[in-house]
Amino acid sequence: MKVLLVIDMQNDFISGTLGSPEAQAIVERVAAKIKDFDGQVWATRDTHEENYLSTAEGRKLPVAHCIRGTAGHEIHPEIKKLLTTPPIDKKTFGSTELGGLLVSLHQEERIESITLVGVCTDICVISNALLAKAFLPEIPVLVDSSCCAGTSPESHKRALEAMAVCQIEIV
Questions:
Q1: DSSP letters along 88-123, please?
Q2: 4 bridge partner residues
Q3: Regarding beta strands 40-46 and 2-7, do their DSSP bridges make them parallel or antiparallel, or are they unpaired?
Q4: For the chain, which end, N or C, has fewer CB atoms within 10 Å of the first or last residue's CB respectively?
Q5: How many Cα atoms occupy the beta-carbon half-sphere of 17 within 13 Å?
Q6: 65: how many CB neighbours lie within 10 A of its CB?
Q7: How many degrees, rounded to 5, is the angle at CA 79 between CA 12 and CA 31?
Q8: Which of 126, 137, 133, 128 shows the shortest CA–CA distance to 161?
């Protein structure tokens, strides 16, 4: 079985407080990837509380985003309508819960590969790709670069290069 991880395709990262033209440009490609994917599709959702600005992340990135209960926290409507399971809320860049779920799934039914798409390439995509690789080191982990966007085009490129060095296949 193959697994597609759709990372943080939320309104705040696409057209909201941390949105970008690059993130807006991948929405249709991510939707097509989900529609055409032969396997399980899971999504993550960056989730912060009202006290975000007083957290360690909030002090380093003082832009309130993905606050639980806001429109910015929600998965983009075009992506949300394609998901058959609720997103996995995560309060950090990488989700150890996601890693544990992947291990459990692999024990039940062998995972052939794990593919990641989404935003931000240089923060949450790279974090979860490395986590997947750490939790299941023998399973191929791939990142579809055409379905990812970073905080900047330069950071996106650097993150792809870093993942490639860590034996994550960039497609």
A1: EEESSSS-HHHHHHHHHHHHHS---EEEEEEE-III
A2: 41, 115
A3: parallel
A4: C
A5: 12
A6: 21
A7: 120
A8: 126
SS3 161: helix
Own/partner contacts of 97-102, CB < 8 Å, gap of 24 or more, are: 98/5, 98/42, 98/44, 98/128, 98/131, 98/132, 99/131, 99/132, 99/134, 99/135, 100/135, 101/42, 102/3, 102/132, 102/135, 102/136
DSSP letter, residue 37? -
State whether residue 139 is helix, strand or coil: coil
Burial class (CB in 10 A: 0-12, 13-18, 19+), 89: middle
pTM: 0.97
pLDDT in tens, the chain (171 residues): 999 999 999 999 999 999 999 999 999 999 999 999 999 999 999 999 999 999 999 999 999 999 999 999 999 999 999 999 999 999 999 999 999 999 999 999 999 999 999 999 999 999 999 999 999 999 999 999 999 999 999 999 999 999 999 999 999
